[in-house]
Structure formats: C-alpha cells, structure tokens
Amino acid sequence: MAKRVLIVDDALFMRTLLRDIFTAAGWNIVAEAENGLQAIEQYHLQQPDLVSMDIVMPEMGGIDAMKTILSTDPAAVVVVCSALGQESMIMEAIKAGAKDFIVKPFSDAQVLEVIERVAAG
Amino acid sequence: MDIAKYREMFLTEAAEHLQNMVSLLVELEAAPEDRNGIAALFREAHSIKGMAATMSYSATAQLAHHLEDQLDNCRSLGQISSTQIDYLLAAVDLLEGLLQDIRQQLPERSVEAFIQGEIPHQGLELLESVSCSEDLDNSNLLIHLRLEETVAAPGPRLLVLLKKLEEFGRLLETIPAEENILQGEISRTLEVRLKTDLSQEQIFTRLQKYSELAEITFPPEQIVEKQRKQQAVTTTVRVGTDLLDHFINLTGELITNRYCLQTAAAERNWSGLNEGLGQLARLVKNLHHQVLQVRMMPLATVTDRLPRTVRDLCRSSGKEVEFVVDGASIELDRAIIEALTDPLTHMVRNAIDHGIEQQGRVRIKAWRERDQVLIQISDNGRGIDPEKIRQRALQCGLLSPVQAENIRDYDLYQLICHPGFSTVEEITETSGRGVGMDVVKTAVERLGGILMIDSVAGEGSRMTMKLPLSVAIVRMLLIESAGSLLGLPITRVLQTLEVSPAEVRTSGKQLVITLQGELLPLLSLRKILRQPKGQVKKLLSLVVTEVLGRKIGLVVDRLVGQQEVFVQGLPAPFDRLRGNNGGAILGDGRIMFLLDLQPLLEKRRKKEA
Question: Does A113 reach chain B within 8 Å, measured CB to CB?
Fold first, then answer.
C-alpha cells in the first residue's frame, strides 16, 4: 500500500513542488496544510505515515505544531523543511523530535533520499 | 606520595619543558653548532627525567634519560645533526603521548621500541593502538564520520546522525559534543564512542543510507585521544599568587566600602555617601583591571608553536624560510588569543605556501597602540598580483567590469577574503592566496577587529590585524538612529565626520561624497534598518567603516559619543535577529544594541542581485 504523507507549508509553490516529488515517488498525499494549526487538525484526521513540515509559518509555526503532534502520538514521523541559514531552528526541531530535515532550496533526489530513509525507520 | 595531588602540576610543567624543547630544536636546526642551545636542550630533558622519576612514571623517565644520553653526546661533539633533530622531535611527540597517557591515568605506552632505535615513531603508535584496543571492552566502538563539503546545514545534519547513532547503542562520548553543535560550533566531522551490540558492518550499512557522509571509518583508539587532547588544552589558567592577593585585598576594601556607604546612607550624610561612591568607583575600576589581567596571555602562547609548523612546511616544500617573531610578549585577552590560533597559523602557512618562492622571510610583529593591539604577518615573497585578483573577481561576478576598472588595489586585496572567492580551489595555484582567508577575516571581525591587506608585487605582502585588548569590555561608538541607541566597536570605525548635504553628489544610483580624493558611497542606517525616513539636517553625521571589504559612509541621526561597555550575548530568540551582535546596559539604564552591519548589507546585496 502506498505510504501516506501530510504536506505542511504556507507557500502554495512549495506545496506544489513537494506534492509532485512525493507523487512521482509513489506516495499518497492525504492532506495539505498552510499552518501549524491546520497541520495538527489534519494529522489527527488522517494519521499519515509522514509529515513534511515547514518551520516558519503564520498562525502556528512548524516546531510548535510538531511538538503538539508528538505529544499525542510519540511515534509520529516528522521531517522539517527549512531555508538555508536557519540552522538553529532546524536543530531546535531535531531536539524536539524531528526525524530528519530538508534544506530549501532542495533537489528531488535530496528529498527522496530523506523521506525514504525515515520511512524505512 | 599522594600522586594525584601533584599530577596536574607535573603535567603542566612537563608540557612547558616539551614546548621549550621544540623551540630549541627548531632553532638548533638553523645553528647546529650552538653549544648553548644544546646545553639548554640537555637541561630540559634532564628536568623532565627528574620530575618523571620522582612521580614514578618510569617509561617517561626512561625516555627522557635516553634523550639526555643522546644530548650528552652532542654536547661533547659540540654539534647536532639534522637526523638527530628529526629523531629528537619524534621523541618529543612520543613524550607528549606519554603525558597524555598520564593525564588520562592509563598505563604509560611502551618506549622500548623507540629507544632500541630503528622503528619509526608512527609505526610504533599503530602497533600500540592494536594492542591497546584488545584490552578494551570490545563492545566499545569508535566511529569517525565526515560530511561532504556540499552539505548545506552541517550542524543539523550532525545532530540527526547523533540521534541515529543513539538508536544503535549508548553514546559514551562525542566530538564535538551535542551541546557544542547546538551552540553553533561548526564541524564537518563527528567522532563517536559507542557502546553497542551491533557489528562494524551493520553500522556501516545503516550509515551508508546517508549520502551526505563522505567518510565512515572506524579508527583505532588513539586518534580520538589526540583530538580530545586538543580540546582539553585550554581549560585551566595559571594565575600568579600576587594577583590572588590583590583580589583578596580588593574584596576586603569592597566590604569596608559597603559599611561606609551603609552608615552614610543611614545617617543621610551626603558628603560621606559621595566619598564612598568615589571610593567604590576606584575599587571597581581596579577590580576590573585585575580581572582583565587574569585573562591576559602573551601572544607567545600562539607564536611559540609556529616555528615547528614553519619547519615542517619548509621540509615538505623544500623552501628556506627564516621565521621571526617580534613582540611575542604583548598580552591579549585569552579569548582573543584562542580565536587567533588558527588564523595566525593559516596566514603563516599561506605566506610560505604562496608568498615565498624559494627563499625568504616571514615575520610576525605585534605592538600596542593605545587600547588596541596590532599583529602583522609579512613576507618578502612575490606579493599578491592585483591583476589576477581582478580577473578572478570578474569571473566570479564579484565585480562588474566598470567596478573592476576603478577599484583601488587596497580594496581589491580585500576580495581574497570573500568566501566565494576563496573556495574556488584552482585560485590557490594561480593567484597565490585565498584559501581560508574568509575564515581569517571572519574571526578577526568577530573579535571586533579589522583585517588590512597590502602588498607590493615582487616585494611581498602584509596582513595586519587590528584587535581590541579584551572582548568582553569594548569601547563603543554610540550612535542614534530613529530613537534607538546602537553601538559599533571603536575598532571597526575608521573615521567619523559631519558633512553638509551640499557635498553629497550622486554617482549612478548611489549617493557619494568625496573623501581624501576618493568617492565614498553613503548608506543610510535608517534605510538599512528599515526605519522611517528622518528629516534633512544641516549637517549629516557619518561613520566611515568597512563592510564586506568596502569602505562606506554610514549616515546616522546622531553621534552620541564613546563609552566602554560590557557586551553580553542576547538570549534566544533575540540572538536570531539579523544584524545584532549582542547588547549592553549603559550606566543610565538604557539598552544599547551592537550593530553588525555585514549580514544586513549582505542580505541587501543579494536582494539587489
């Protein structure tokens, strides 16, 4: 069965880009969210295998959203996605439980490597 | 005898003797018939032998005794051969290894093979590491990881790897430590000591999934020890007892002062209060001075290590280089000294690799100018060819053709510090300089200093670092912009001046003034900080400073004055603010932020591009 992913990013452009990469790799995109609050809601509705989470977003940022998700589902697999130069935020996310990270700008191959790695456990 | 009590003392002293031996050996290489030098070397070996024997460190004593014999021979011959110097340097390395064993309370490594003669030192080390690792619990595994140069965010990447490794077993030790990574230490390598039930092959296969890794190896024990030693080097400081006495006296006076002030306050005795406050001011100033004194270290701490580097470089390159240090006794804050170690080594290395052609001189000169220290590294080599830099800068797009034509040599040289410039590898062959100069410049500027580069083709080049004496307490130029108070370290300020708006002209889109015959671009601080526009004034206040290798005139609302302030790092999340390098609370309670122009202008430039 195809693996299920939730894509969280406030930029439509980034969501489209990620959607195409995930689709090409045979993933099933179960939902998309534009901010942390939506991400939490969608996570509980869909229970995806993987969350691709942007860090800087309006309403609620990715790190807080991830913490909330992990507090109810410690097994959640979250990969954070952030721009170059935000190393300290990425590290904060990893400390808080992110399994891996993707740095924008990214290539398809980089994204695929990371998601396959974390999906394999 | 209570060994532990004396161990630290022994280690510190023995390390000093070894450092002296290295310096003497390098000097003797240039003058092999210097009897005084040989005699001094003999005394150093003798001192180590005596101390080690007293402490019952038999292998160390045995090796030192062996060296003494060798040197006694040289002493009677009145000269020392270059083979002997090589041999003795290898012996010093071995002694350093022994000290390390003692520091870690391991049994001393064997010196028999070395003393017997022919076995080269490195072979010995390998041999020992094998026998050493057999003794260890075999579930302890050392893993060395190196990231690809292209990995965009090394810190987070290492953190992910650490978490992955934690799944394999228990992490006993990591270099760098996790907290150092979190604090922003940049490293592309990771050493881990792991207690695990998995085999090397199993771990290797799992780590292979990370294409970010350029190298996955499982080194024998000692390599990690070596790195640990480097990390542990600077954790203690020796303080003279006279300084400690000063502190006690000062504390006593402060207590007395407190009672004076309390009494005066209770009696509402204003003149008494005033007197007490005056006294307090004097005591605090004195205390500050003494504390700084404790933190001061001579430049020699760094430069004493350099002759060996120079010697090894000369050996490998076949060049003949005379290395001179003037002003090694100049003292600087230990934080500055520590931060200077790599840049200095780097510049000396650069001078030999790329400046000196076959034979020449590299000189480090340090001197003090008021509350600043200047350190200059010069060589009499071929110099930097401005034409080649110009070409390269054009190629990399750092300069437009018009800029390339008009730029002065001084500004051109600064371009070798541009990261985009230096990471291009082929440039090291063609233009000579560039490797890591961006690192040097960043280090100097982080300390609140300035790096100046000048060069005359065929006569040599000169790099001058202008540094503050201390990092924590810095003399600041206070400026005001739209009501906020900002500070620039005085070392970063080239000049301040006030000009009439009539002097301002435009050159292209850029506002400029003519200063000492040159066009100086003007940038408004309000604009950089995205503050509302101010009113046009009769006189514009300018701060002339250097950012990204260019001189600029920063237009500010008001020059407030100069003041010594105690700079503190800002707590999260304020540390993430771009262009802000810390803050200070001034005497009147106002908060001043330390302005860091570089990232602000870099961002702007990127936007424009």
Answer: yes
Residue B47: inside a domain: yes
Partner-chain contact A91 B163, CB within 8 Å: no
Tell me phi and psi for residue A81, to 5 degrees: -130, 120
Task: Give me the sheet containing B540-547, strands edge to edge.
Answer: B493-499, B540-547, B550-556, B518-524, B510-515, B505-507
Q: Do A95 and B159 touch (CB under 8 A)?
A: yes
Is A75 part of the contact surface with chain B (CB cutoff 8 Å)? no
Distance CA B378, CA B361 (A): 8
Least Cα separation, residue B206 to chain A (angstroms): 10
Give dist(CA B325, CA B297) in Å, integer. 16
Q: Do A100 and B211 touch (CB under 8 A)?
A: no
**Quick check: A90 contacting B, CB < 8 Å?**
yes
Predicted pLDDT at B326? 93
A83 has a chain B CB within 8 A of its CB: no
- What pLDDT shows up at residue B176? 84
Q: Nearest 5°: phi and psi at B370?
A: 45, -125
Instruction: Please say whether the beta carbons of B384 and B461 come within 8 A.
Output: yes
The Cα B256–Cα B526 span in angstroms is 49
Instruction: Look at residue B223 in the predicted model and tell me its pLDDT.
Output: 46
Is the pLDDT at A105 greater than 60, yes or no? yes
Q: CA separation (Å) from B603 to B529, B549, B578, B597, B606?
A: 12, 15, 9, 10, 5
Residue-range definition of the domain harbouring residue B579: 473-608
CB-CB under 8 Å, A90 with B156: yes
- B176 and B110, same structural domain? no
List pLDDT tens digits, range B367-416.
988 778 899 999 998 888 888 888 888 887 778 888 888 888 878 888 88
Same domain for B339 and B254: no
B128 shares its domain with B142: no
Q: What is the pLDDT of residue B603?
A: 66
Across the interface, whether the CB atoms of A88 and B576 are under 8 A apart is answered yes
Q: What's the gap in Å between the CA of A100 and the closest CA on chain B? A: 6
- Average pLDDT over chain B, rounded to whole? 81
pLDDT single digits (tens) A24-68 = 999 999 999 999 999 999 999 999 999 999 998 888 899 999 999
- In Å, how far is B181's CA from the nearest CA of chain A? 9
The CA distance from A49 to A44, in Å, is 12
Pick the CATH number of A9-86 from 3.50.50.100, 3.40.50.2300, 3.20.20.70, 3.40.50.620: 3.40.50.2300
pLDDT tens, B240-299? 788 888 888 888 899 999 999 999 999 999 999 999 999 998 898 888 878 877 778 889
Q: Are residues B533 and B565 in the same domain?
A: yes
Which residue among A91, A99, A113 sits closest to B156, beta carbon to beta carbon? Answer: A91
Q: What is the ipTM of this complex?
A: 0.87
- Is B176 inside any structural domain? yes
Q: Of B445, B468, B491, which marks where a domain is finished?
A: B468
Q: What angle do CA B242, B248, B249 make, to 5 degrees?
A: 90
Q: Does A74 touch chain B (CB under 8 A)?
A: no
> What share of chain A has pLDDT > 90, as a percent?
62
Q: What is the pLDDT of residue B553?
A: 93
Angle between helix axes B241-266 and B270-295 (nearest 10 degrees) is 160
Residue A113: its chain B contacts at CB < 8 A? 209, 211
Within an 8 Å CB–CB cutoff, is residue A56 touching chain B?
A: no
pLDDT at residue A70, as a whole number: 94
The helix or strand, by DSSP H or E, that contains position B347, with its residue range, turns out to be helix B334-350
CA distance B486 to B526: 12
Whole-angstrom distance, CA of residue B583 vs CA of residue B570 = 6
Regions in chain B scoring below 50 on pLDDT: 1, 118-137, 223-235, 423-435
Sheet with B213-217, strands from edge to edge, namely B169-175, B189-196, B140-147, B213-217
